[in-house]
Amino acid sequence: MPLFFPYRLFPELLLPSTIFDAGDHFLEMEKQQVKYDISENDKEYIIEMDVPGFSHDEIVIECEADGTLTIKSEKKEDKEEKGENDKKADDDKDKKNVIVKGRNYHSFKYSFKFPSLDKVEATFKNSVLTVKIEKIKKPKRQIFISKL
Fold first, then answer.
1. What integer pLDDT is reported at residue 131 of this predicted model?
2. CA dihedral 21, 23, 29, 35 (to 10 degrees)
């Protein structure tokens, strides 16, 4: 047994029926992180972003003049669960109305810098946002120096 065993100090964490279960709370927070991949081919840059729990209406994509592409979203949820808990069916004293209220706030904001944002396309399918940025091939040009 390790020197520090937290369940000795807090044995209620071992019970699944506790009001606050830290393990599940942290797993839920980890699930909400947005993961993305950036790739490129000869024609375009491709951003694939996993956005579980968000719909295409809640996501905003902004293109700025300096080549910055920003993808952001904000989602607020208020949920209420009602139920009835019976310990003894015969005794009306033990019936309790249980109301659970929860407030969730999920948001993300990512900014990417690209050489040009002239043509940008975005699609959303199965909680995956795909953004394609066309590469603009600018021809090399030579600057002539004039003699004064």
1. 96
2. -160
